[in-house]
Amino acid sequence: MNILNNKYILIIIVLAVVFSSCKTGGLLVKKERKKGQIKNITDAKLIKNVEQNNLEFNTIFFKKFQAAVDINGQNKTFKGNLFIRKDTSIIVSILPLMGIELFRVKFEPDSIYILDRTKKKILVADYDLLWKKFYVDIDFYAVQNMLLNQFFCYPSSEIDKGCIKKFKHYVRKDQYVLQSIKNGRYTRISKKNNFKDIIYQEFTIAPDIFKISKCYINDFGSNSRFVVDYKDFIELEGNVFPSVFKISGERSGSKFYMNIEFKNIELDGISKISFKHSDKYTIEKIK
User: Fold this and answer.
1) What is the pLDDT of residues 57-78, one digit of tens each?
2) Average pLDDT over residues 20-46
3) Which of 61, 72, 85, 251 is deepest in the core (most CB within 10 A)?
4) Range ranked top by mean pLDDT from 8-17, 105-114, 152-161
5) Confidence at residue 130, expressed as pLDDT on a 0 to 100 scale
6) Cβ neighbours of residue 68 under 8 Å, at least 6 residues apart?
7) How far apart are CA 55 and CA 240, in angstroms?
8) How far is 23 from 25, CA to CA, in rounded Å?
9) Are 229 and 18 in contact (CB under 8 A)?
10) CATH classification of the domain holding 64
11) Which residues face 196 on adjacent strands?
């Protein structure tokens, strides 16, 4: 499979990059996990502690990330850059060959644009494409929050954007686990094997820094699973963020895995990525 000539595989790669937010620019934070039973707190307090650690910014420029991807046994490596203008756009530049950009992708709240420099085309899609092709029901803001190591509601069609406040937590292996279905109900569903149309989402939270260390989603109705592991937290302007992301997904036997490392970050700086292109580019709608 040639990922550079397959627009759908390209979207998977770009999404995997986007799902793998990381921040660098400081020394590794070497904090020991607490041993034994950690002190329990209320659900509201846990959520508040995590949200208070969210990064405040207008723009972020992730420079020179490196990524390795495996899609159903096909391995590829590439480099790139990533730029976020908060609540407005996410732009990813893909550099597969000798640092020469072949693709540039822009996520906006309503649409996804893929600039293909090899074919002088701009491919346009809405977020329904992600559900139709990959059974991932997310919107721009869910993508942005995943990139920023923040809470998000799944599916994105969830009317109540405050859905996280309904999550319940427990303590597992010295970490907090915040989940969309309480343990008791999940056990009852499991015993009856009645998972039809059930979507289970959980966030694992490191208690020493109150940051999300893992996001897990299991959509039983579509037989799909998605996992983001946030690794190697480092210091960034008085906060901590993950610098390595391990992303995996599976749907009906098809699998992908991705590992991404970011080397540098510029917060509210002068560097940016635009989406300018020649008028000679043709526009094609992806359906």
Assistant:
1) 999 998 888 889 888 888 888 8
2) 61
3) 61
4) 105-114
5) 75
6) 75, 76, 77, 258, 259, 260
7) 9
8) 7
9) no
10) 2.50.20.10
11) none
Residue indicated by tokens 């693709």: 103
The string of DSSP codes covering the chain is --GGG-HHHHHHHHHHHHT-----SS-B---PPPPSSPPP--HHHHHHHHHTTPPP-SEEEEEEEEEEEEETTEEEEEEEEEEEETTTEEEEEEE-BTTB--EEEEE-SS-EEEEETTTTEEEEE-THHHHHHH-----HHHHHHHHTT----SSTT-S-TTGGGG-EEEEETTEEEEESS-HHHHHHHHHHT--TT-EEEEEEEETTTTEEEEEEEEETTTTEEEEEEEEEEEEETTEEEEEEEEEEEEETTEEEEEEEE--EEEES-S--------TT-EEEE--
- pTM given for the model: 0.84
Chain segment 186-196, per-residue pLDDT in tens: 666 665 566 67
Give the separation between CA 268 and CA 286, rounded to whole angstroms: 33
Summarised one tens digit per residue, pLDDT across range 106-142 is 999 999 999 998 899 999 999 987 777 666 788 999 9
d(CA 270, CA 267): 9
pLDDT tier at 164 (50, 70, 90 boundaries)?
very high
Unique residue bearing structure tokens 């597969």: 96
Residues whose CB is less than 8 angstroms from the CB of residue 64 and which lie 6 or more positions away in sequence, other chains included:
79, 80, 81, 262, 263, 264
**Residue 147 domain boundaries:** 3-285
